[in-house]
Amino acid sequence: MKRRTFAASMIAATAAASTVSIVASGAMAQTRRDELVKLRVQILRFSSDAALYLGVQHGFFKQEGIELEITPVPNPAASIAALQSGHCDVAYGAIVPSLTAIGNGIPLRFLAPADGFPLRAEDSSERYDGTSLFAAKDSGITHPKELEGEVVVVTSRKSQSEITIANAIKADGGDVSKVKWVVLDQPSALQALNAGSVAASALYSPFSAMARENGHKQIASPGFAFFERGVVGVWITSQGALESKKDALLAFKRAMIKSNAYAAKNFDEAYDKAAEFTKIPKKTLTSGPLPVWLTDLQQESVDRAAKKMFDLGYLSKIPKTGDLIVN
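Above: the chain sequence. Below: its structure as tokens.
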């Protein structure tokens, strides 16, 4: 979960996760092709991953001497588990689930920015938020506070979708403790709304566009209200990976920042790439939230999210966020 971003565009979470090996050879430590440093990268198949693919296509990772093995996974929890077990080196995550994992004692680090909202609050709007809260069309619900005692669909428990929706309900004067959370993938969440078996659901593009077409009512943009501005999606790594592959991970950070800058300046090419690997029509993607790729992972964004999570009861203490960001 953030625009929550062009990053919020998700294909079915139940799609089979296949591994794609992308080789980028190059100049890091003057390595030769047979001495490439391999990094195993996991993505969620959000359309914001277009920046990563464009970076490979245009040689930004090649210049750093990195071989990327890219694997799509269904949710952030899977990526965090893979990082914890040492089965991957880098994963697309987000501030909220990463802070939740860190609060549970998992030693994650924030490596590089992915996507988010414009840095200046005055430039931000709900147009950039890819996380939408939809109420079923026949539910009669028009405001988040009315979800007390109702069934609300999220992508996983204590996830970014749940926490940002909880923030919206509390801000609207509702009692979050009375909400009945259920977990469904995005296609199933939309089906549940259509059937009227749930009161509301967190939906990402393109499922949010489909919900709107089916007559369901968007009652909040919870990502925008929670994050306000700055980074939302991040590339995360583990402390163990950082200790064993520090040079390669710093090279990934440099290449990723360059890739984000390129994608931000070449929207049309980025949309083409996103349509290619998500298998979602470009027309559908362009009707969704505006993408914002960032080149700076601001501590302020992490601090703001941590404080709100603590206030909502999702963190028992606020971590020293300055120690979490890889510089």
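The first strand starts at residue 20 and ends at 23.
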